[in-house]
Design brief:
glutathione transferase activity, five-stranded mixed beta sheet, alpha+beta, 2 domains, single chain, Glutathione S-transferase Yfyf (Class Pi), Chain A, domain 2, transferase, glutathione transferase
Amino acid sequence: MAGGGGQELKLLGTWTSPFVTRVKLALSFKGLSYENLEEEDLYHNKSELLLRSNPVHRQVPVLIHNGNPICESQLIVQYIDEAFSSANGPSLLAAEPYERAVARFWGAYIDDKLLASAFQAGRAKTEEEKAEALKRTFAAVETLEAAFEGISDGKPFFGGDSVGYLDIVLGGLVPMVYYGEARHGIKLFDGTRSPLLEAWVERFGALDAAKAVLPDVHELVEHSKMKRARAAAMAAATGSD
């Protein structure tokens, strides 16, 4: 499948990754078609194409545009917005340099503070570690709530009346928000701590371009249970040797 105008687009990824979902959202909102290449085993058997395309980190997502690989999800989203004009859907980043810088700042904050601490909470080995990671996560949520209020200026999205760069960046986390609640009983955004972001999650997830690519939460939960069961079985087998 081509991205339009003879432009060939391939996406290396895996359906469970919020970073891959982020790129899929950008492609969906820009109205671009692409070849979706799923990496089946990122732990033990990465494809030769992935290793050639991202030899430094060897991770997904990787977008290959006319044979040229682009790595790291936020950089890919920015590339998509720059490489494909507004004729391919709305512009995600503002034209004004300061507004673009602000969007990039908060995009980095989402990954470096919010997502990083949420991952730490999910991987914590003790209740104390989990509690501390969740404390940092919810502090980041409150900071982002205030940022949304200022950036959106009362409009429905970070991008104003339409979806923008930060909506795409945070949008990749929407399945993780619902997954955390379903799997662990942790509600990342709620009406007390972050009513604006709670409403934003529902609003964003209801958009057709988002629904087209967001993974099903129940499938994510079942996939997680299967992985944990498999890991426990392997650990038990190793321990019995």
